[in-house]
Write a structure and sequence with these properties.
Blueprint (H helix, E strand, L loop, with lengths): L8 E6 L4 H16 L7 E7 L5 H15 L6 H5 L2 E5 L5 H17 L6 E5 L6 H10 L9 E5 L7 H12 L7 E3 L7 H11 L13 E9 L8 H26 L8 H14 L8 H4 E4 L1 E6 L2 E3 L17 E7 L9 E7 L6 E8 L18 E7 L3 E9 L7 E9 L11 H11 L8 H20 L8 E3 L5 H8 L17
Parallel strand pairs: 1-2, 1-4, 2-3, 4-5, 5-6, 7-12, 9-17
Antiparallel strand pairs: 7-13, 8-11, 9-10, 11-12, 13-14, 14-15, 15-16
Helix pairs in contact: 1-2, 1-11, 5-6, 6-12, 8-9, 8-12, 9-12
The protein binds 6-O-phosphono-beta-D-glucopyranose (BG6).
Keywords: Carbohydrate metabolism, Glucose metabolism, NADP, Oxidoreductase
GO molecular function: glucose-6-phosphate dehydrogenase activity; NADP binding
Pathway: Carbohydrate degradation; pentose phosphate pathway; D-ribulose 5-phosphate from D-glucose 6-phosphate (oxidative stage): step 1/3
Length: 500
């Protein structure tokens, strides 16, 4: 997969005092270091506005790792690789100082001129930083240079194009690593393996045998401190444009001719090109939006979205989206891919349910109910695993059928949790494997799909908002979306691996 084994690099993290760096990036780098997946030849420059000494910065690294990981034997050694640069993103002198520091560390740690620039800060700075990195000479290196960029990649297609143009003046497409952290999740990566490494699924993976696919990603958290960002984003931009559409692409893509970055991305792009555009009045038939009101979860009373900090008290922003995606190609014609995602829902869960068509003739009966359809459930989080729902004979003298479940719980390496998405993505980037990052074509196609929906939603106030209580599975309209097709949402709580 375009990999080389050289994990030597200078990593510059822009936004090093931010939440993402502390919660995800530093602990993930530490885990790689501890597993010897990061050679001793690495150095990190933390870049942020506030003044800090190297010692203070190193202390913050230790604090962040210690709060995330229980055993951190090599923390002193690890933290000694970190340096700090107090930066003004608009000032060339500041980039010049950063360049000197980078060159010096490059020599000291023998980093072969390899550089990773990680942009983990407010998106309005992504473009200007990329331009400065080039004009101020930080990208003039003898080794590789890579740009890792967090979401959101633009606010719509127009702004994404503009950002992409700015970035591309300094980095070529194959040097750009656009993060979609769902692509780093163990079970999201497993979709391909389940599909393409088993003889029993792929022959059934089409509109002859699958009746519908349901992808749910529900959260219990509300908007927290991110009201300002979320008001402009909403669930459509925050979750659907990226994570949800990416999961659909992995479920729907054709088998690639090879398991390499180019081939996999190219198959995903084809799916996105086949995605039926939904616009104008049609949107009401294909999509439902919601906004959480007050409610209770685990006996705790929760405020409505409109009462959250930095949120307009009459906000029209959606905190929930359900949609029906149709992929108009030979394999999927007629099979709805239902997606739903929302904040302040009943449970934190990401699951994919593949519902197979009923058998042509039902010879068996079950007391009080019809035979259950076969389901393949892929549990993405919090539990990881696969469940296959079948029917079998109920033990005893009769010939009655009963639903059974074949279950696989993924306990990860050594029975511990599987590696955090960021750990895998950072490692991939160090090795030059961009497979689990989004290509510009994917980003552009996703935006052009969701832009048509936001165009309608932003211009029509939803008078029913708030239309679901916190602690529930979303508005009634989301259920009706499936009912009109004769389906219903498989309840995510009953499908848990541990319940089987
Ligand atoms: C992020 C969104 O991309 O994904 C957040 O910006 C959301 O709003 C998060 O909470 C969900 O990620 P996960 O890994 O907890 O499912």
């Amino acid at each position: 997969m375009n990999q080389n084994d050289n994990q030597t690099a200078l990593i510059m993290i822009f936004g090093a005092t931010g939440d993402l760096a502390k919660r995800k990036l530093f602990p993930s780098l530490y885990r790689l270091f501890e597993k010897n997946k990061l050679s001793d030849k690495f150095a990190v420059i933390g870049v942020a506005r506030r003044p800090l000494t190297n010692e203070e910065f190193q202390q913050s690294i230790k604090d962040s790792v210690e709060s995330a990981i229980e055993k951190e034997d090599r923390i002193e050694e690890f933290a000694s690789h970190f340096y700090y640069h107090s930066h003004d993103v608009t000032d060339s002198d500041s980039y010049a100082a950063l360049k000197n520091m980078a060159n010096e560390l490059d020599n000291r740690y023998e980093l072969n001129g390899n550089r990773i620039f990680y942009l983990a800060m407010a998106p309005e700075f992504f473009g200007p930083i990329a331009l400065h990195l080039k004009s101020d000479g930080l990208t003039d290196v003898t080794g590789f240079k890579r740009l890792v960029i967090e979401k959101p990649f633009g606010h719509d297609l127009e702004s994404a194009k503009e950002l992409n143009n700015q970035i591309r003046t300094a980095f070529s497409e194959d040097e750009v690593y656009r993060i979609d952290h769902y692509l780093g999740k163990e079970m999201v990566q497993n979709i391909e393996v389940i599909r393409f490494a088993n003889a029993i699924f792929e022959p059934l993976w089409n509109n002859r045998f699958i009746s519908n696919i349901q992808v749910t990603s529900s959260e219990t958290l509300g908007v927290e401190e991110r009201g300002r960002y979320y008001e402009k984003s909403g669930a459509l931009r925050d979750m659907v444009q990226n994570h949800m559409i990416q999961m659909v692409a992995l479920l729907a893509m054709e088998p690639p001719i090879r398991l390499n970055t180019e081939e996999i991305r190219s198959e995903k792009v084809k799916v996105l090109r086949a995605l039926r555009p939904i616009e104008g009045e049609e949107i009401h038939k294909y999509f439902a939006r919601g906004q959480y009101g007050e409610g209770t979860l685990n006996n705790q009373s929760l405020p409505a979205y409109r009462q959250e900090t930095m949120v307009d008290p009459s906000s029209n922003t959606e905190t929930f989206v359900a949609g029906k995606l149709m992929i108009d190609n030979f394999r999927w014609a007629g099979v709805p891919f239902y997606i739903r995602t929302g904040k302040r829902m009943e449970t934190k869960s990401t699951k994919i349910v593949i519902q197979f068509k009923d058998i042509p003739m039902n010879l068996y009966y079950q007391t009080e109910q019809q035979l259950k359809p076969n389901l393949l459930v892929i549990h993405i989080q919090p539990e990881e695993g696969i469940t296959l729902h079948l029917n079998a004979k109920r033990a005893g003298t009769g010939m009655e059928a009963t639903p059974i479940k074949l279950n696989y719980a993924n306990k990860g390496i050594d029975g511990l949790n599987t590696p955090e998405a960021y750990e895998k993505l950072l490692y991939d980037c160090m090795r030059g494997d961009a497979t689990n990052f989004t290509h510009w074509d994917e980003v552009a196609l996703s935006w052009s799909f969701t832009d048509k929906i936001s165009a309608v939603w932003e211009n029509t106030k939803d008078e029913s908002f708030p239309n679901y209580a916190s602690g529930t599975m979303g508005p009634k309209a989301a259920d009706e979306l499936l009912e009109q097709d004769g389906f219903f949402w498989w309840p995510v709580t009953n499908l848990d691996v541990d319940n089987c």
